[in-house]
Amino acid sequence: MRVLLFAVADDSLIDADRNALSLINILVDYAVSAFPVAIPRLTVVGIYERAVEEPNIVATRLRVTLNGQEVLDVPWASDFQLRQKLQSRATLQSIPIFGPGVLRFSVMLGDEELGYWNVNVLSLGPKVDLLNATQDVKAAPRVASDA
C-alpha cells in the first residue's frame, strides 16, 4: 500500500456523484494564545493505492504526536473493498495541545510511517501556564453607571 495524499484540514467533503474529495482549510499553522488548549475538530484525510496482490483490508493506525510525544494512537483500518484506490477520512475532536511545537499526524503500518502531515503550533503571546499558575487573578470591580 502506498500513500498518494495525506493531509489535515478543518473539514472535508466528498461529492458522491463524482467521488471527488474537497479539503476545507488545510492546516499548516495553528496559532494559540494560551496553553493548554484543545483543537475542537479537524479531519485527517488519506488517499491510498494498493497493488492487486495486496490485501483488501490493511491494519493501519492513526498516530498524533506533539514534539515527538504521543497524543493519540488509534486503529484506522484501510478497507479497499476490492478497489485499487481508497479515500479514508477520520474526524478528530478535542486534540489536547500543551505547548507550541510540531503536531505530527501519521498513518502507520506496524512501526512504519507510510505518510504524515505536520502542523506548526504557534504561540501568539507570552507563555502562560494555566495549569500551574501561582498568581491570583482578581476581577475588576464593577462600577454602577448612571442610566
Quick structural summary:
The chain is mainly beta and 147 residues long. Helices cover 0% and strands 61% of the residues. It is built from no helices and 11 strands.
- Largest sheet at a glance? 5 strands, mixed
What's the pLDDT, averaged over the residues?
88
Estimate percent helicity: under 10%
What's the name of the CATH homologous superfamily?
A: Macroglobulin (MG2) domain
Query: What spatial form do the alpha-carbon principal axes imply?
Result: elongated
CATH architecture group name: Sandwich
* Number of E-type strands: 11
Query: Roughly how many Å apart are the termini?
Result: 71 Å
Q: Could you tell me the strand content as a percent range? A: over 45%
Mind telling me the C-alpha Rg?
A: 20 Å
Report the CATH topology name.
Answer: Immunoglobulin-like
Low-confidence stretches: none
Question: Could you please describe the fold and organization of this structure?
Answer:
The chain is an all-beta fold. It has a single domain (2-123), classed as Macroglobulin (MG2) domain (Immunoglobulin-like, Sandwich). It is built from no helices and eleven strands. A five-stranded mixed sheet has the order 3-11-10-6-7, with no helix packed on it. The protein has a four-stranded antiparallel sheet with strand order 2-1-4-9, with no helix packed on it. A hairpin with a 4-residue loop joins strand 1 (2-15) and strand 2 (20-26).
Topology:
Blueprint: E1 2-15, E2 20-26, E3 29-32, E4 37-49, E5 57-58, E6 60-66, E7 69-75, E8 78-79, E9 85-97, E10 101-109, E11 112-123
Parallel strand pairs: 3-11
Antiparallel strand pairs: 1-2, 1-4, 4-9, 5-8, 6-7, 6-10, 10-11
